[in-house]
Design goal:
about 70% helix; binds zinc ion; about 0% strand; globular; about 100 residues
């Protein structure tokens, strides 16, 4: 499910990254760190606003959000109580940003 979402052209990635970095004062790393809190509404309104703005311009973080939302949905259903071992590592390796 995540695989096809992250398949975008190199040039498109660079454009999105540039926009995100110049217009939004939050980095992808910060977003990834806070995304579970974001889904649990456990962050300040200011941070939430910044993250929402970031998700609109950053395809990588949108993919992370989708992935996390699926996991949270499963947890809420009582079907899964924790992310599988290595989940974050695999997820992040797929969306790793290049310098
Ligand atoms: Zn991002």
């Amino acid at each position: 499910m995540l695989e096809h979402r992250t398949e975008i052209s190199e040039s498109e990635t660079l454009v999105i990254k540039k926009d995100a970095m110049t217009t939004i004062e939050i980095s992808c790393v910060e977003v990834w760190r806070e995304v579970s809190n974001y889904l649990e509404a456990d962050i300040s309104p200011e941070l939430r606003e910044r993250m929402e703005a970031h998700f609109k311009v950053c395809v990588h973080c949108s993919a992370v959000l989708d992935g996390m939302r699926n996991i949270v949905g499963l947890v809420a259903d009582g079907r899964l109580f924790q992310t599988p071992p290595g989940f974050h590592k695999r997820l992040y390796s797929k969306i790793r940003l290049r310098p």
